[in-house]
Amino acid sequence: MAYVEKRAWIRLVVAVLGYTAYVIVIAGRLGGRAPADVPYRDALLWTVGLAIVASIVAEIAMGSVPGTSRDTDERDREIGRLGEHVGQSFVVIGAVAAMLMAMGEWDRFWIANVVYLCFVLSAILGGIAKVVVYRRGVPQW
User: Fold this and answer.
1) Contact, 87 vs 122, CB < 8 A?
2) Helices (H) and strands (E) in the chain — how many of each?
3) Which of 2, 21, 95, 130 could form a disulfide with 83 if both were Cys (CB 3.0 to 4.6 A apart)?
4) Please, what's the b/e burial string for 87-107 (b: 16 or more CB within 10 A of its CB; e: otherwise)?
5) How far is CA 134 from the centre of its chain?
6) 3-state SS, residue 65
């Protein structure tokens, strides 16, 4: 498995686990309250921060395994570029949604959570695209 594919797997798994942890924490805090009344800031910041740290630690651990080569070729760069382009669609969707929600004067809870969800979906979709292309080959347009 190529180094870049391993990185895609790490980021994909961390994104899913991090967001799942966040949802579990927020759901546990509901306790009959409306979602907008739940304290979310600390949970959001902690899960994002821990996801970043987990990705960094996992990538360092992966890179320290003897025999692991960080060499990339044109195919790796093309797959990385394709995955990023695929994933970026959700960043745009999240930005537009947040802008419309802010203009509609929605509660900050919803705006922050839509932005976070779209970042996670971007990471997941981009990671899946990279893994699929590594497994099936680069599409010829």
Assistant:
1) yes
2) 4, 0
3) 130
4) beebbeebeebbeebeeeeee
5) 19
6) coil
Helix (H) or strand (E) holding 84: helix 74-103
This prediction's pTM? 0.86
28-59 residues labelled b (16+ CB within 10 A) or e (exposed) = eeeeeeeeeebebeebbeebbeebeebbeebb
Tens-level pLDDT at each residue, the chain (141 residues): 777 888 899 999 999 999 999 999 999 999 999 999 999 999 999 999 999 999 999 999 988 887 767 777 888 888 888 888 889 989 999 999 999 999 999 999 999 999 999 999 999 999 999 999 988 877 676
